[in-house]
Amino acid sequence: WGLMMMVQARQPVWVERAGRTAWRRVQPLVRAPGGLMVAGLLWALMPCGLLYSALLVAALSGGALQGAVTMLLFGVGSGLWLVGGPWLWGRLRTRINAVRASWGTRLAGALLVGVAGWALWMDLIYKPSLWCR
User: How many domains does the chain fold into?
Assistant: First the structure.
């Protein structure tokens, strides 16, 4: 997948098609009154490792008040990023678009190839070598 992204500078066609098909089905629901709120609620209910980590820290914080403060701080930090991220992206988008057109996808493909190679190395070469020591 990463090699295809590096060579073609785009996602595979079937992934694009699948994403567009899914969006066509979801778009009428999002455009309905209250649809954005429902979509956001459903998105928030999706499992997220960072959220589960925050919940674990809150559960181990020593009390209900400390746990509530932990989750409040997590919510404030997340909220700041959710507001600031799109604002920052809007300011940087015009500068990035020229470079992003092809090289951003190629870079993502190269990173994917690198991570996949590292994962294969760790599972196929490194871990078995621990048994030989």
Answer: 1
